[in-house]
Design brief:
Its EC number is 7.-.-.-. With about 190 residues, this protein is mainly alpha-helical. The protein has helices spanning about 1-25, 30-40, 55-65, 75-85, 120, 170-175, 180-185; strands spanning about 105-110, 130, 135-140, 160. The protein is flat.
């Protein structure tokens, strides 16, 4: 009996190692162009571009299925960077997607909050904490300023407050670009 269990355990370890090796050996890397485009986008995940987040928008741009001027949070600066990267002509921000606004963070008037959790459900980056029938609050460093929490709030207790640029917030304007080893070799 003990030998059978030992053989089964050894077989599981061998199989796991083989599958792990196969997963590493055949891992597919992301498209470097999509990664570069995504690094330029502001990572607000707001959907104002017509896509469910920055990565799907980056994929559509790379495939030529989307214009580079559909991201209000990225604004003209982001459009210029995308145009430079892709060798395309600069186009002003598309009015149908919104207007460029200063970087902001959501703030909840906690005295007015009824704890409905609708804002929590709407937040694409989990920057709102709270519980049903309890007040909610924003984790400011996590908030991307997407404004998706505003429409579902039944008591209008959420407002957007502009963020002053400081040492702590500069990264919100200039996303950190992570370079993979393959990108380093290609450079």
């Amino acid at each position: 009996m003990f030998e059978a269990i030992l053989v089964m355990a050894l077989g599981a370890v061998v199989l796991g190692a083989a599958l792990g090796y196969a997963a590493v050996r055949f891992r597919v890397e992301g498209d470097p162009l999509v990664d570069k485009i995504d690094a330029i986008l502001p990572q607000t995940q707001c959907g104002q571009c017509g896509f469910p987040g920055c990565k799907p928008y980056a994929q559509a741009i790379a495939k030529g299925e989307a214009d580079i001027n559909c991201c209000p949070p990225g604004g003209d600066e982001g459009i210029h960077k995308l145009a430079d990267l892709l060798g395309r002509e600069f186009k002003s921000l598309s009015a149908e997607h919104g207007i460029e606004k200063p970087k902001s963070v959501a703030v909840i008037d906690e005295q007015s909050c009824i704890g409905c959790t609708l804002c929590i459900q709407a937040c694409p980056v989990d920057a709102i904490v709270g519980a049903a029938k309890q007040m909610h609050t924003i984790v400011a460093p996590q908030c991307t300023g997407c404004e998706l929490c505003l429409p579902p709030c039944p008591v209008d207790c959420i407002s957007m407050q502009p963020i002053a640029e400081s040492v702590e917030t500069w990264k919100w304007k200039y996303p950190v670009v992570k370079i993979t080893p393959a990108q380093k070799e290609a450079a």
